[in-house]
């Protein structure tokens, strides 16, 4: 009985040993090899990763300041008057006649609206100016009387300050108007500007003469950068000229892109190939033969899916991993997806023997 118990114990110990050996062997095969003497695992894995690749290139990149601007009449400059805007009534009165319609082209000095005020009427004031001119020519009245008559007439008419288009008209015959109330608007549509409020920090990069893009395709340049900051929102006014024939209309609110820096011959990589690591640094996966290796890089400008990079021993034409770079180990065997697809297609197309 005692001998039988001993035999059973020996068999159980042998079975347990065999099970431990089998589990250890399975674990080593599954993990890719034996642990090293220090107890750590080798970072290099023999697994092959299928990836997509592309070459590094050199190209010109730009730095931009983005914003939104409003199309408006160009302001006056030393060389050119303002391109128009709202026109107010000089006095309180009643509209006697409206001589234009919205959308009409007018010349500077054209009478847009005629007014009556109190006992003075536009018709009488106009006739009085003509009478005083004749009397003055015959030396039968004074220059002051003529000037007073002209001043009276001027107060009863609303004239176009510039040649342009009547873009707004609120005056109606018989309607009362207050002094300084806006009754019309005339704008020279060939002389427009775009005004953009940009953050003060961004404005430090902007200078007159820099290229500016309005909307999708209209190109111009910066003409003015305000020397002051708007205290309410910490922005700076930036203005650019709108090219004649652009099709942009006053009041439109459109995206703006100002080029503040241009760099040529930048070494660039596709944006999807540049990976931000957990430590805040970035890397790409450089391909040599059938192996990919992480290479730390410093990033710069970004534009249209490309990123400027700097790194040790990197040059244009070098092959890097694009799709598959995220989560890539420090070093691994790779297989190009295009090559794999070509091999697969060749295999499937081969005739059966």
- N-to-C SSE series? HEEEEEEEHHEEEEEHEEEEEEEEEEH
DSSP strand tally: 22
Number of helices: 5
Number of domains: 3
User: Largest beta sheet, briefly?
Assistant: 6 strands, antiparallel, barrel
Architecture (CATH level 2) name of the largest domain: Beta Barrel
User: Taking Cα atoms only, what radius of gyration do you get, to the nearest Å?
Assistant: 40 Å
Helix and strand content put the structural class at alpha+beta
Share of residues in helices: 10-25%
Classified by CATH, the class of the largest domain is Mainly Beta
CATH topology of the largest domain: OB fold (Dihydrolipoamide Acetyltransferase, E2P)
Could you walk me through the main structural features you see in this protein, from its secondary elements to its overall organization?
Helix content is 22%, strand content 41%. The chain is rod-shaped, with a radius of gyration of 40 Å. It folds into three domains: 98 residues, conserved putative lor/sdh protein from methanococcus maripaludis s2 fold, CATH 2.40.420.20; 86 residues, Beta Barrel (Elongation Factor Tu (Ef-tu), domain 3), CATH 2.40.30.170; 104 residues, Beta Barrel (OB fold (Dihydrolipoamide Acetyltransferase, E2P)). It is α+β, with helices and mostly antiparallel strands and 353 residues long. Helix 2 runs antiparallel to helix 3. It has a six-stranded antiparallel beta barrel with strand order 3-12-15-14-13-16.
């Amino acid at each position: 009985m005692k001998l039988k118990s001993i035999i059973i114990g020996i068999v159980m110990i042998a079975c347990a040993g065999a099970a431990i050996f089998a589990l250890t062997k399975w674990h080593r095969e599954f993990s890719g090899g034996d642990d090293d003497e220090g107890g750590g695992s080798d970072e290099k894995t023999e697994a092959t990763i299928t990836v997509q690749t592309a070459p590094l290139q050199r190209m010109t990149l730009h730095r931009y300041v983005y914003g939104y601007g409003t199309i408006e009449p160009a302001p006056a400059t030393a060389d050119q008057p303002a391109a128009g805007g709202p026109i107010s009534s000089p006095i309180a009165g009643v509209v006697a006649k409206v001589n234009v319609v919205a959308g009409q082209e007018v010349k500077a000095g054209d009478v847009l609206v005629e007014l009556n005020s109190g006992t003075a009427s536009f018709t009488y004031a106009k006739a009085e100016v003509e009478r005083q001119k004749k009397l003055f020519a015959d030396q039968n009245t004074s220059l002051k009387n003529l000037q007073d008559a002209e001043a009276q007439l001027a107060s009863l008419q609303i004239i176009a300050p510039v040649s342009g288009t009547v873009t707004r008209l609120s005056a109606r015959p018989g309607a009362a108007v207050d002094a300084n109330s806006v009754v019309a608007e005339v704008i020279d549509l060939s002389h427009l500007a775009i005004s953009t409020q940009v953050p003060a920090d961004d404005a430090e990069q902007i200078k007159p003469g820099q290229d500016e893009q309005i909307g999708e395709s209209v190109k111009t340049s910066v003409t003015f950068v305000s020397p002051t900051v708007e205290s309410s929102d910490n922005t700076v006014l930036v203005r650019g000229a709108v090219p004649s024939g652009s099709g942009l209309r006053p009041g439109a609110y459109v995206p703006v892109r100002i080029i503040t820096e241009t760099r040529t011959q930048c070494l660039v990589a596709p944006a999807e190939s540049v990976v931000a690591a957990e430590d805040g640094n970035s890397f790409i996966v450089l391909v040599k033969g059938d192996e990919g290796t992480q290479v730390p890089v410093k990033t710069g400008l970004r534009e249209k899916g490309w990123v400027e990079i700097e790194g040790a021993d990197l040059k244009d034409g070098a092959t890097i991993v694009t799709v598959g770079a995220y989560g890539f180990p420090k070093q691994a065997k790779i297989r190009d997806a295009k090559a794999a697809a070509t091999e697969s297609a060749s295999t499937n197309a081969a005739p059966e023997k």
